[in-house]
Specification:
The structure is a single chain. This protein is of the alpha+beta class. The chain has 3 helices and 8 strands; from the N terminus they run E-H-E-E-E-E-H-E-E-H-E. Strands 1, 2, 3, 4, 5, 6, 7 and 8 form an 8-stranded antiparallel beta sheet that branches. The longest helix is centred in the N-terminal third of the chain and has 10 residues. The radius of gyration is 16 Å and the shape is globular. The two termini are 22 Å apart.
Length: 139
Amino acid sequence: MKLDASGLQVLSPGECLHLLGSAVVGRIVFTDRALPAVQPVNFHLYGESIVIRTSIGAKLAAATHDAIVAFEADEIDPATRTGWSVTAVGHARAVRDPQEIDQLSALPLQAWAPGSRDHYIMVRIEQLSGRRITQARSD
């Protein structure tokens, strides 16, 4: 087991993908009017890409069009002070190909927000890292 300088377990790329695939909600980090912005989103892991379903007029859809974004998902247990966090970085693109849209619409990815959500954003994972807290520190 490899530990980082803080004593956290460093996760392999395979472990990171497995944990991302088990998460339901994550946070996408993008640029909005030259400032960093973070938005929670539900998502689906599709191979080594993250798929988000939104509306075409959403700020997220406009801001992530052909942009480099970060994405983070985690699971933390405050009672045991254990958990994990996975961060991915990659290029986001609007999905425009009708055949690809048909494939993505078959995924178990239902938008939580009200209104029409028929626009898909795909983030191709180019950098992936993760850490796990396996036990609480003793102070």
